[in-house]
Amino acid sequence: MTNQLGLLKLVIIVTIFLSFSTTVEAQDPRFAQFYAAPDQLNPALNVVYDGQMRFIINYRDQWSSVLNEVPFRTLAVHYDYRMNIGQNDYLSVGFSGLQDEAGISRLKRTKGQANLAFMKYLGGNRQRDFYLVAGAQAGVGQHSLDWSDLWFSGQFDAGNVAIDFDLPSGEVESRTGRIYPDFSAGLLWYMVSGDFSFYFGGALYHLNTPNISIFEAGADRLNRRYVGHLGGEVALSEFLSILPAASVNFQGPATDINIGTNFRYTSGEKNDLALRIGGWAHIAGTEQNGVAFEAFTVTSMLEMNTWMLGISYDINTSQLTPASNARGAFEASFIYIIPESGKRRTKVICPKF
């Protein structure tokens, strides 16, 4: 009886994973704090910050309430070095990496890439400044599976109602997967006027639709991801402002929309202490299931001088709510900016995200 219950549990977990695989296959992982993961939103954003160097770490843990020890986990790291190449023009070079692990098969997606972005000052006056930014990424990636926790019909021992992992699966196994090239690009326009800012941009990821199949003779193309995003900052008082933003992603049959706002309160002290609290709606859909409200994200962020720490939690509102008890995903972000050497921090000419 114990073996049967264990088998039933394994079948349920595999079924849940496979149901998600139909919607996430050949799709990019996402961050609810998309505004704190510029590398995953738009390559042009890699130069849009006030400083000389920037380090970013993003971490996401999703579906722990359902998948226990095998949730969806995503870790991204990012580094930029920004150079002044004109009176108000900047060039940024850097690199980034991402590793995503999903479900009981531990489908692992790993990639590393070099980043290049250029910021061009379009002009302005004492009241406002305008900028146009272009960015590009070039790198490599790899997909792989952990076959040790997977079983197939040929390994099922009906007599003992158990799985015999010593039996051959009869499946073609490629444990490492091929290494594929990947290219992306994006544009951004923004305006800053005192305590008001506005920006909008677009990006195209996986320009070359690389073959990500884990099988040597397989062909599984990674769909291009089309991104549109906009946002800004509006001051409500001397100490309080709002930072509304939205992002829309189209990748193959999948649609992913995030929209909401953060409220930013600053003490006005010299150390530039600020606190953000906000809420964000996540809307997702496919051609088969249509578009639905998937989750509501609650965020909090702390800013102190040159660093920012963000924590958020997704409250699940999808069809999986009964199984997850509305528990969705935990996410954290950390951004550290090193000001230009030998200089005091200059007036911010970049919008806040």
Report on the architecture of this protein:
The model is unreliable at 1-25 (pLDDT under 50). 31% of the residues are buried. The longest helix is centred in the first third of the chain and has 23 residues, at 2-24. It contains 4 helices and 16 strands. The strands form 2 sheets. It has a 14-stranded antiparallel beta barrel with strand order 1-2-3-4-5-8-9-10-11-12-13-14-15-16. It has a two-stranded antiparallel ribbon with strand order 6-7. The chain is mainly beta. It has one domain (2-338): monomeric porin ompg (Porin).
- CATH fold name, please? Porin
The total domain count is 1
Shape: globular
CATH class: Mainly Beta
Which second-level CATH architecture applies?
Beta Barrel
Number of β-strand runs: 16
Protein structure class: mainly beta
Determine Rg (CA atoms, Å): 22 Å
Q: What portion of the residues fall into strands of 2 or more residues?
A: over 45%
Keyword list:
globular, Porin, disordered N terminus, mainly beta, 353 residues, 14-stranded antiparallel barrel
